[in-house]
Amino acid sequence: MKIAISSIGNNLDSDVDSRFGRCNTFIIVDTESMDFQAVSNGAVGSAHGAGIGAAQVIANLGVKAVLTGDVGPNAHMALSNAGIQMYVGASGTVRDAIKLYGLGKLKSVNAPTVQGHFGQGGRRRNR
After folding, report:
1. What is the C-alpha separation between 27 and 5, in angstroms, rounded?
2. Fewer Cβ atoms within 10 Å of its own Cβ: the N or the C terminal residue of the chain?
3. Contacts 24+ apart (CB under 8 A), 41-49
4. Is residue 125 part of a domain?
5. Exposure of 64 by Cβ count < 10 A (0-12 exposed, 13-18 middle, 19+ buried)?
6. Which residues face 106 on adjacent strands?
């Protein structure tokens, strides 16, 4: 299965970025083979709609799940509409997040975990 992890770098030893829509890079991993690719998040600099743009990138890559720190309302809506499951609370390295996911230790969410524009230094968490 293909999963995407929000990251600040371009490999499995990069740190997880807690922001989905505003992360620099997505690490796309095939959980069966552990093959991966780094995909730049073109939406990171968007004034508005970064979460939606990031979700579209992920959906176009055939990803089935996203591992991240938090997910905002626009990203949540777009990922949900694409049938992509969201897991939050990821931290440490990308490799650490994949391990936590495999152990079932990340929280699956059915609602946003932060308010809009959280990744720009605004608003509070929804938790």
Report:
1. 5
2. N
3. 49/74
4. no
5. middle
6. none
Closest CA to 80 of 119, 51, 123: 51
- State pLDDT tens for residues 47-97: 566 789 999 999 999 999 999 999 999 999 999 999 999 999 999 999 999
Question: Whole-angstrom Cα distance, residue 36 to residue 107?
Answer: 23
Q: Where are the beta strands (DSSP E) in 1-127?
A: 2-7, 25-30, 36-40, 65-67, 85-88, 107-109
Overall number of domains in the chain: 1
Question: pTM score, two decimals?
Answer: 0.87
CA distances, 57 to each of 1, 36, 52, 74 (Å)? 17, 16, 9, 14
CB of 98 closer than 8 Å to CB of 13: no
- Token digits of residue 27: 């690490």
In terms of residue numbers, what domain contains 51?
2-120
